[in-house]
Amino acid sequence: MSNSILSKPYFHNEEAAYEFVEARIWPRGAVCPHCGGTERNKKMGGASTRIGTYKCYDCRKPFTVKIGTIFEASHIPMRLWLQAIFLIAASKKGISSNQLHRALGITLKSAWFMSHRIREAMKSNDVSFFGSDGGDVEVDETFIGHDPKIKPRNSRKGRGYAHKNKVLALVERNTGKARSIVVDDLKVSTLLPILQANISPNARILTDEASHYYQMREHFRAHGTVEHGAKEYVNRDNPTIHTNTIEGFFSVFKRGMKGVYQHCGHQHLNRYLHEFDFRYSNRQALNVDDAERAERILRGVIGKRLTYQTAV
Ligand SMILES: [Zn+2]
Q1: Residues 6+ away with beta carbon under 8 Å from 156
Q2: How many CB atoms sit inside 10 A of residue 258's CB?
Q3: Cα of 39 to ligand 1 centre, how many Å?
Q4: Residues 249-284: pLDDT tens digits?
Q5: Cα dihedral angle (86, 88, 93, 97), rounded to 10 degrees?
Q6: What CATH number does domain 136-281 carry, 3.40.30.10, 3.30.420.10, 3.40.50.12780, 3.40.50.300?
Q7: For residue 22, how far is its CA from the centre of ligand 1 (angstroms)?
Q8: What is the chain's mean pLDDT, rounded?
Q9: How many whole angstroms from 46 Cα to the centroid of ligand 1?
Q10: What is the pTM assigned to this prediction?
């Protein structure tokens, strides 16, 4: 027998795939999504029954583990969902719908829907403040692709970035977690409410010399800066002051967006950010391996269906 993770039965056998998902979504046994019943649920068998079907003898309705998750209303076999989740979890720069379509033998359209649903599962529910222990939070922004709503002011190619999509990102040093957000512009009036909603006033923020950060510094315990314009990447007086962690995050994000997701429209950018935030916050350096990362995606599938449908 091979030790390859890809030889696991839940990637190939539909019943094993359902059992794998059920064990994670229902750790204490099946829960009826219609009435919440936990006591009188019976797994249905027989050739005419769909795999994974249960019947609740409290409300007498059938159900499967897919209800209320990203899998609901999907006809794609569960074992392919698990393959797709594993591939997305294990690819540092992401995996394109085209690649997923070829690897899984499904249509491009199915691959596209699956990957966007999986990105929803990767969306963090964590709304805690970064740096609430008084720790360091690196803050920086980057530009990616074009926002079609804004016309480039300067006709010379590559000049100016008003027409580009703008991404603000934060990395909490102590935990290694990243959180990034698409922003309309880099005005203090736009950025400050976002920073205050995500960073504790007890935190020390670490940024480059961009003037908007100086205008926001009084809202945080401390503010350290590096002068990127003067090629200073670590503060000369204090080596803990730098933004190299967040530069590393942006570098993976940009390589993924350019190399894998070549045509990302403005409306989907937030979804891709969920994906890169998730993988970065659950990375190997934080002792999360590929299998554990896939498990964590699976725990995120619950309650994401509606978010997805209303967002499209
Ligand atoms: Zn019920």
Answers
A1: none
A2: 13
A3: 10
A4: 999 999 998 888 776 777 789 999 999 999 999 999
A5: 140
A6: 3.30.420.10
A7: 17
A8: 90
A9: 21
A10: 0.89
